[in-house]
Amino acid sequence: MFEKKWGEVMERRTQRRVVRKSRKIRKNTFVLLTMALILCLGTLAMGGEKGIQTKTYYECVQVEKGESLWEIAEEYKMDGADIEQMVDEIMEVNGLKNTNIRAGESIIVPVTKAA
Predict the structure, then answer these.
(1) For the chain, which terminus, N or C, has the lower number of CB atoms within 10 Å?
(2) Are the CB atoms for 109 and 90 separated by under 8 Å?
(3) Of 90, 89, 85, 92, which Cα lies nearest the Cα of 67?
């Protein structure tokens, strides 16, 4: 009788160990997969930024008669860039409060090129 009871106790302990081990394996697998996913997403995000490398330099431009800041921005902006953003950058670099410019005036234009 004692041996039968002892056998049942040992069997329950073994079952509990198996269950604990199984839970631990599932938890570790989940953590590992989560970390791998985060690493992959981070790598993709960083790779997307590396795609286009640009270099910005500044050019001094003399304003011609009848020329507007918008026309200058259109001429010097990078392909696909927003013209309004380019106008804002030119205004910021030159400390302009509005888009009014005069013929003969020299302005600095940020020029961005793919490196």
Answers:
(1) N
(2) yes
(3) 90
**Phi, psi (rounded to 5 degrees) for 109:** -120, 125
**Structure tokens of 46?**
């960083």
**pLDDT (0 to 100) of residue 1:** 53
**Nearest to residue 88, comparing CAs of 78, 98, 79, 80?**
98
Q: Which residues pair with 109 in a beta bridge?
A: 59
Reported as a single tens digit per residue, the pLDDT across 16-32 is: 888 888 889 999 999 99
**pLDDT value for 11:** 81
Residue type, 32: L
pTM (predicted TM-score): 0.54
